[in-house]
């Protein structure tokens, strides 16, 4: 079994440079995917309160730890504080709820899912809406939320903190006041959206960039992104005896990011982890720049009215 290499985070913890995304994995598909992934050698799993699958992820992880197939410390478990828990008084409650669902006593990396706070009705009502159809947001400052997240590290509930869906100004503002530097920033990143200035800022502060939707969500009903059919990408795939998806993941790794592709199919899971035995040339890497049109898949338009809307 071959494991992915790791990157050292700015706090010394190691993160495998390829993880399993679990958005939209429900019921037995989730259980099967996480099981296959751990069997294949995945040691980094990305979930979120929002995905409603933390219980299943935790169940499979517990099964593997119980059977001594893996030790808890060998799996880098990432989850996210959902937007309804931004009020400082709710942060520890949310984290403890998630620890319980995941059936673990610490989370490796806890991300603020987005800078936008959402009104809390109940743990079940994750997307409360106003009568006009807008998301029912609140004005909690993400700096206050983050301060409460820092206490989770002090309490030993969380090892590393991170952010997701923050823009450059928001990250900069947070860096000016935080006590514990974020170890990672999770952002949409694939050949059609490579946010260079934001990534440069992360590099400067040694913040690891985690690439979400790294494959551009093929086979999810969206048209197949152009780079899959590009003659040069297809040629690269042939040259290295890989698939275009593997070439894309290799490109993102060579950019210095940590991709977290989601896959339910075993063939995909296997393919995505098998990207550590080749490297693209400078010319091949440069070719990918032609696809970078700032094409965002996730626009979070329901929060467009909010002062902290990031795009
Ligand atoms: N922080 C945030 O706001 C967000 C975080 N994320 C995280 O990022 C993860 C990945 O992003 P996601 O949006 O799921 O999209 P991805 O870009 O990972 O695409 C997933 C799709 O690609 C298919 N696929 C996987 N591997 C291959 C392959 N080798 N060849 C061809 N197709 C393949 C999958 O098919 P199949 O399942 O059938 O195998 C699935 O339909 C999420 O699951 C989630 O964990 C995502 C969005 C937002
Ligand atoms: O991680 C995510 C996946 O999908 C959600 C939409 O349903 C996003 O809001 C979120 O950021």
UniProtKB/TrEMBL annotation:
CDD domains: AKR_AKR2E1-5
GO molecular function: oxidoreductase activity
Site description Lowers pKa of active site Tyr, residues in chain: 80
InterPro entries given in the database record: AKR (IPR020471), AKR2E (IPR044488), Aldo/ket_reductase_CS (IPR018170), NAD(P)_OxRdtase_dom_sf (IPR036812), NADP_OxRdtase_dom (IPR023210)
Pfam families: Aldo_ket_red
Active site: 51
UniProt cross-references to SUPFAM superfamilies, sorted A to Z: NAD(P)-linked oxidoreductase (SSF51430)
Gene3D superfamilies named among the record's database cross-references: NADP-dependent oxidoreductase domain
Record-listed substrate binding positions: 113
Boundaries of every NADP-dependent oxidoreductase domain copy: 18-291
PROSITE patterns with a match to the protein in the record: ALDOKETO_REDUCTASE_1 (PS00798), ALDOKETO_REDUCTASE_2 (PS00062)
Protein's UniProt name: Aldo-keto reductase family 1 member B1 isoform X3
Species, as recorded: Drosophila kikkawai (Fruit fly)
Biological classification of the source: Eukaryota, Metazoa, Ecdysozoa, Arthropoda, Hexapoda
